[in-house]
Amino acid sequence: MNYIDSHAHIMSEEFQEDFDAVIQRIHDANITGIMIVTTKAEEALRAIEFAKSDPARYKVAYGIHPEDIRTVTEADIARMEEIVSMDEIAAVGEIGLDYHWEKEMKEEQKELFIRQIEIARKVNKPILVHSRDAIQDTYDIMKEHRVKGLMHCFPGSLEMGIEFTKLGYYIALGGAVTFKNSRHAKEVCAGIDVTKLLSETDCPYMAPVPMRGKRNEPSYIPYIVKVMAEVRGISEDEMAAIIAENYERFLEGR
Predict the structure, then answer these.
(1) I want to staple 62 with a disulfide (CB 3.0 to 4.6 A). Which of 42, 44, 105, 216 is the partner?
(2) Distance separating alpha carbons of residues 220 and 95, to the nearest angstrom
(3) Region 33-61: what's the mean pLDDT?
(4) Per-residue pLDDT at 149
(5) Is the separation of the CB atoms in 3 and 32 below 8 Å?
(6) What's the rounded Cα separation, in Å, for the pair 4 and 24?
(7) What is the reported pLDDT for 253?
(8) What percent of the chain has pLDDT over 70?
(9) Average pLDDT score over residue span 123-138
């Protein structure tokens, strides 16, 4: 089986001490597609250089995270646009809204989100969207400012998931789908169009069962795909193949 991790922060400092070992485990686990997600310019440039070692396996995304709303400058946005215009960047993200940590700057977050969506439209690349405690505002913006993209670590209900897929967006599920109390994630996995499902780790965060409490990493993606297959009532082989096909379509902007 070949696996896909559509959202992995492997350039973050949590992986610096054993980076080579993490990469070896990626190969050992047959993870043939990884989106390296970056939220700082220097991270994005490091990811671009690393991805050149295996461009078929590694793709790079870059965007300004909503948690950085208090410190972002016009120069940061200009630099972001310059970097995502590069051929080596496959997607713009992660971008979006986070009202959990930044309750006081909702309007500023919306403005930054829309600006980055419009940059993605300009460079003709899909978006990777973060939404926390902000699902309705996220949906409203993505409906009005529509580009190709996916909802990363989807936090909403099945009903909302269906509405996003009607707009053409993919839904990525991570470690939460393996948790015992993850009713919404399992309902989304079971109920949305299977051609819109993707798998992700969001490493180093949200490690799946049975690795909860550990640093997450891409080699744990099989645990997530296994549960997704069980929820859908199909084999793990079939689930992995469907996700791989979906990921290729996503990268192609379809």
Answers:
(1) 44
(2) 24
(3) 98
(4) 98
(5) yes
(6) 16
(7) 86
(8) 100
(9) 97
Per-residue DSSP letter, 251: H
- Residues 243, 194: Cα–Cα separation, whole Å: 8
Tell me phi and psi for residue 126, to 5 degrees: -75, 165
- Contact status, residue 184 vs residue 158, Cβ threshold 8 Å: yes
Name all domains of the chain by residue range, CATH numbers in brackets: 3-251 (3.20.20.140)
φ and ψ of 33, to 5 deg: -140, 125
Rounded to the nearest 5°, which phi and psi values hold at 108?
Answer: -65, -40
Token pair, residue 197, equals: 């499902």
Say how far apart CA 183 and CA 200 lie, in whole Å. 18
Which helix (H) or strand (E) segment is 177 a member of? none
**Of 86, 77, 158, residue with least CA distance to 114:** 77
Q: What is the token pair recorded at 182?
A: 């993850």
pLDDT tens, residue by residue, 205-214:
999 999 999 9
Q: Would you place residue 101 in the very low, low, confident or very high pLDDT band (cuts 50, 70, 90)?
A: confident
| 37 strand-pairing partners | 61
Please check whether residue 101 is in contact with residue 68, taking contact to mean a CB–CB distance below 8 angstroms. Answer: no
Classify the C-alpha dihedral 206-146-192-252 as positive or negative: negative
The mean pLDDT of the chain is: 97
The one-character DSSP state at 163 is H
- Nearest-10 Cα torsion for 24, 29, 33, 35: -60
- Model pLDDT, residue 102: 77
